[in-house]
Amino acid sequence: MSMIKTVNADKTFHGAKGKLHVLKNVSLEVQAQEVVCIIGPSGAGKSTYLRSLNRLEKIDSGQIYIDDKLLFDCENGINTVKMPVHERNKALLEVGMVFQQFNLFPHKTALENVMLSPVHVRKVPPKEAKEKALAMLGKVGLADKIDAYPSQLSGGQQQRVAIARALAMEPKIMLFDEPTSALDPELVGEVLSVMKGLAQLGMTMLVVTHEMGFAREAADRVVFMFEGSILEINTPEAMFTSPANERTRQFLQSVL
Asked: Contact at 8 Å (CB) between 115 and 126?
């Protein structure tokens, strides 16, 4: 079953310096319980693509399916799919996202940060939301940090709170946008360990990452993007040992 599918997703940014064509007819399908990693150089369109899936960026043209439902069919930046707003928003709530920056509320504890969205967005009763938040913080190894404020946590711990916060919304799909890029090297492992655990539990995951070891170990498929296009999709073994595309080979030689 397809959990994420895009067909010819296209996006151009218009700015003072002219046009920047960031997504060029990107088509990709992610199946249920599949882990797909997107790799590529800076400026390849990886993060823009990820952000387009939950409408943080609006595509100019193309189709976006979430959980086998067509949510967006865009022409000239206008979505032609007629769907009640609450129905589309409900579908988008199936998509959790973890960003490069942790974006935690500094004046709230780890527990309060994780409880916030279930209570205010999903209208979960506070007692139930607290139980769920405690379980999620336990899952990411932070049961002993529930009363800590973000300033009292390391970067790796803050990112794990952010993952717990996304999981507390009970998404069917998790998007990770370079979740370790803002971390000191010694803190990267603890976040990747949590992500590997989610993959082993069967969470559908689409991960933009520069951690090639994680992509090689945890992904079912690896996608290489360059200048707004997908140039290659392959198994980790094939991608890292015998990439089919010359540009993929050049990139991997530069980072490995």
From this structure: yes
Q: What is the pLDDT of residues 13-58, one digit of tens each?
A: 998 888 999 999 999 999 999 999 999 999 999 999 999 999 999 9
Parallel, antiparallel or unpaired: strands 35-39 and 78-79:
unpaired
pTM: 0.95
Q: Each residue of 98-133: pLDDT tens digit?
A: 999 999 999 999 999 999 999 999 999 999 999 999
The amino acid sitting at 156 is G
Closest C-alpha to 38, from 229, 203, 188: 229
Q: How far apart are CA 28 and CA 5, in angstroms?
A: 6
Contact between 133 and 114 under an 8 Å Cβ cutoff? The reply is yes
- CA–CA dist 71, 88 (Å, integer): 7
The torsion angles phi and psi of 94, rounded to 5 degrees, stand at -75, -10
Q: Please, what is the end-to-end C-alpha distance for the chain in angstroms?
A: 34
Say if residues 61 and 75 touch (Cβ distance below 8 Å): yes
For residue 131, give every residue at least 6 positions away whose Cβ sits within 8 Å of its Cβ, in sequence order, or none.
none
Closest CA to 95 of 158, 177, 150: 177
Closest CA to 45 of 54, 34, 55, 57: 57
**Token digits of residue 59:** 């595509």
Closest Cα partner for 95 from 202, 205, 19, 226? 205
Cα separation, 168 vs 88, in Å, equals 20
CA dihedral over 92, 98, 104, 110, signed as positive or negative: positive
